[in-house]
Amino acid sequence: MKSKLDPALLALMAVVLVALPFVASGYVIYVVNLLMVFVVLALGLHLVIGETGQFALSHAAFYGVGIYTAGLINNLWHPPFFVSIVAGGLLAAVLGYIIGALALRMRDIYLALSTFAFGEAMQWVFLNWQSVTNGSNGFRISPATLFGYELVSDIKAYPFVVAIAALLLWATIALSRSQLGSAFRAVRESDVAAQAMGVNVNAIKRTAFTLSAAYAGIAGGMYTTFASFIHPESLGFQTTILILTMVVVGGIGSVRGAIAGALGFGLISELLRQALSFQEIIYGVILMGFMMFAPKGLFASRDARRRAPPPATPLPTRTGAAAPAAKPTQRSAA
């Protein structure tokens, strides 16, 4: 399925995002920055689950790799922020390639469990590598810089965060419409059929894992441009479930669904900030409900209805035409 976005809706979103800094408070700008990070995370998970059909549960780990990599580079060398963001994305991509190579022989629940184990292992690293991550005390991030200009507030980071999110949205749509996107979807439908058509299934799966991890790493780098602190507890399984819920509820295989899910559940997570003990229950109930009653999500279901062929019309018959004579049955000899 080629991804399509309504140009009028995109234009409206662009106008709102441009006008927002002039009318909104600092907290609203912070929330929008966070929503843009969620959009990139959801687009990355969309590539591996929605486009390629590989059920991976390690997205929060790659997100954490991007945050800590970009944060460490900012703290030590203060380069232009895009350098640290690219570094975080590259390191996450390398890890994603390795995980993708190890998971080639796994499918479905086995793939989910192996990637879940990797995510838990990475959270353990974030919690216990004291000399690098500062462990359970949390990690302080220096302000991002751009040739001496410090992004010391949410509103200063806002245009760069929105621009990166828009760039990755464009890249996702272009990828979906490319030959590589067609190969992704062929693997999603059937490994055997894709291989019979000449698709290198193993290479496609590794590419999907690598790109998905790179998106998560870049999202982590984006987070360091407006946030000054990160704690390993916020990079655990709850974050993975949140991102998964965004993609599933929005619509698996739909770019529009990934964006809508990221915006909707990003706002819900912010509203539930004071009720942390109920977040996992609420996300779980919503996710279970959609998987039971609308497994393709909101926007994927709409797209399927739009693509459904019209009902076949019966061929016209001539008026007064004689019905075909019944074939005589042959009696058996007595």
TrEMBL record:
Regions of compositional bias (Low complexity) in chain numbering: 315-334
GO CC terms, sorted: plasma membrane
Domain of life: Bacteria
Keyword Membrane belongs to the record: yes
Localization of this protein: Cell membrane
Positions of the UniProt region annotated as Disordered: 305-334
Protein name stated in the entry: High-affinity branched-chain amino acid transport system permease protein LivH
Alphabetically ordered keywords of this record: Cell membrane, Membrane, Transmembrane, Transmembrane helix
Membrane topology: Multi-pass membrane protein
MF terms in GO: branched-chain amino acid transmembrane transporter activity
Transmembrane feature ranges: 7-24, 30-49, 56-75, 81-102, 109-127, 157-175, 241-269, 281-299
Lineage, opening ranks: Bacteria, Pseudomonadati, Pseudomonadota, Betaproteobacteria, Burkholderiales
Residue stretches in coiled coil: none
Keyword Cytoplasm included in the entry's annotation: no
